[in-house]
Amino acid sequence: MHIDDLFSIEGKVALVTGGSRGIGEMIAAGFVANGAKVYISSRKAEVCDATAERLSDVYGGDVVSLPADLAGLDGIDTLVDRLGESESRLDILVNNAGVSWGASLEEFPEVGWDKVMDTNVKGVFFLTQRLLPLLEAAATPDDPSRVVNIGSIDGIKTPVFDTFSYGPSKAALHALTRQLAARLVRRNILVNAIAPGPFPTWMLSTGVGTGGDVEGTDWETLGQGIPRGRVGTPEDIAGLAIFLCSRAGAFTVGDVITCDGGLLVV
Fold it and tell me: CA angle, 209 as apex, 54 and 155 as ends, to 5°?
């Protein structure tokens, strides 16, 4: 029962959607740094390619770019086909790709509802569905395959910002996590979710008014309003993801684990 065995993901094959930046990039970095082969996907091919190249160079591992738009079935099927051309199994699926939309209650548009729901809920379901053959090919009773859905504390509490479709989409994702977990656990596929709080990401920077300028956002001041006194770090989110995907997490099923610095308990 050595720690290296409990938390090892070495040799695993992982797919991280939305892996070109933000929380997805943090998780992908943690995986490749600890010996996994990682595929990352995002809508913008140039950004996805650049992130894959950078992570490979920094960590000396294998990170492969598979750009795709996961809001629709065509993009999902393209991603699944391309992954299947290279791999006969998939040990880990991290459903991190997500979008948000901000507008006042009176002005919130239908496109802002549909785009968020299509990406954050429908896309997760159908990508997981279509990857079941690869997940089952890797799954054994002693070493199950893993699906980790990235939800949000906004799916548990009332969001701070006027993002009226985002919180409901994440609440739906948490519910979907539990339902998929119940159906797949006997097929040796474990499904869990992480509900992050504030992390230094492009999405949060748009919410706090810096318009996507991650480097120019005053994260230290923002973190003062969090019980832990800071925003999340790559180690926080990657460590939790590695736990869920390693031997240490093999008896955790259908859970939604917060990673929020204490926001939900105060």
Answer: 80
Rg (C-alpha) for the chain, rounded Å, is: 17
Q: How far does CA 7 lie from the centroid of its chain?
A: 19
Based on the residue annotation, tell me whether 166 is a catalytic residue of this protein. yes
Chain-centroid distance of CA 84 in Å reads 20
* pLDDT score for 210: 74
CA distance 69 to 71: 6
Write the class of the CATH domain 3-199+232-265: alpha beta
Whether 209 and 217 have beta carbons less than 8 Å apart is answered as no
**What are the pLDDT digits (tens) for 26-56?**
999 999 999 999 999 999 999 999 999 999 9
Q: HSE (CB half, 13 Å, CA atoms) of 46?
A: 0
Q: In degrees rounded to 5, what are phi and psi of residue 125?
A: -60, -50
10 Å CB burial of residue 204 (0-12, 13-18, 19+) is buried
The catalytically annotated residue of 31, 39, 164, 166 is: 166
pLDDT band at 201 (very low <50, low <70, confident <90, very high): confident
Taking the model in full, what pTM does it have? 0.96
Q: How far apart are CA 17 and CA 221, in angstroms?
A: 30
Residue 122 pLDDT > 70? yes
> How far, in Å, are 63, 220, 261 from residue 228 at the CA level?
32, 12, 5
Looking at residue 1, its pLDDT comes to: 83
In the beta sheet, which residues pair with residue 40? 16, 65
Tokens read off for 74 = 């065509």
Average pLDDT over residues 2-15: 96
Strand partners, 15: 39, 93
Q: What values do phi and psi take at 38, rounded to 5?
A: -120, 130
Tokens found for residue 212: 């996507």
